[in-house]
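FORM 7B: Structural annotation worksheet

SECTION A. Query
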Amino acid sequence: MTTRLASTRFRLAGVAALAACALTLSACQGGGTPGNTGTTTASVTPSATPTPTPTPIAVYKPADAKGKAQNVPVPVKPALADENSKAGLEAFTKYWFALLNYGFETGDSSAWEKLIQPGCLFCENLKSTIETGYKLDRWQAGGRISAPIIDATVAEGAPTQQVMVQVIQETTDFYKADGSIGRAPEPASNTASVVIASYKDGAWIVSDMHLVQ
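SECTION B. Predicted structure
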């Protein structure tokens, strides 16, 4: 029994010695706040998202003595303009005059011409005026057209319909390719006109136009 106690005391003394040694090594290695392993973590800065460059917006510039009009908005045809009704005919007529104005501003009347029936003499005169104003790289300034009053009379079953229109046009100046004056300005006008239109193949087309005397 004495031998067992002695053996037990020997084992306990060995465990205590090992524990003391472990504490000593821990204190020597740490040298600071417990739990600090001494490993440095590099901070990562998120890359900045590049700011997109805004797309330049084309700015409308009317014609003047220095040059032709630029970035003229193309008239958009409203869906109602193809409807066979009083409201549809009035919407079409407003669109038709918007295309005519676009022709005077740019010299391009191709879209407007598609809405004219052959034989419309008044329309042919307007077309000739536009072509002359832009011949040989000339251009027109001013001459803006608006139709503030449009009133259609629709008779059911009639082959053609009439539209009363107030047409206002600003003074028109004419310039040559070198910027010099081409001819005397055309004075402003405010007239009452009648547009004759017919409905064919699901769309309106102008067959005639004349001034109200």
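SECTION C. Observations
The mean pLDDT is 83. DSSP finds four helices and seven strands in the chain.

SECTION D. Sign-off
Analyst initials: ____
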